[in-house]
Amino acid sequence: MYLQGPRKLMTQGGYDMVQKLFLDFFRRRLSQRPTAEELEQRNILKPRNEQEEQEEKREIKRRLTRKLSQRPTVEELRERKILIRFSDYVEVADAQDYDRRADKPWTRLTAADKVSRGECWRVGGRTVCWVGTPVGMTVGSSHLPLTVKNLPEDGRLDC
To answer: N or C terminus: which one in the chain shows less Cβ crowding within 10 Å?
Structure first.
């Protein structure tokens, strides 16, 4: 009878021989393994029992609970430079407290505001608005002023 191995066909006798070689190899390796006593002598395996492990876990839990219950105050943390406030490094000013989600300040700008901010200008009776650098302005012409003519009296532009 033939058994099919990974690369070639093997007879039953050949298969038994390979199996015997593997078993001998692993038996030899297991026999060379150090015993528990040898591992304890080398400080690799620690001699313990269940009671010692439970006692050690209780001690760790007790120590951590004590640390959590004796937390330092805010002043102590500031003295140790652990707790640093944002306002220690940045000047903070008071602001009105209102809902800014619905606030759109750009809708309240008049035409004069937009022109003074450089956001809109009139060309040939038409209002032109942009975000960023205007199309006609080059790097070399940024020092020249933009002139705006034909602004409506109410100051509103159709931007």
So the answer is: N
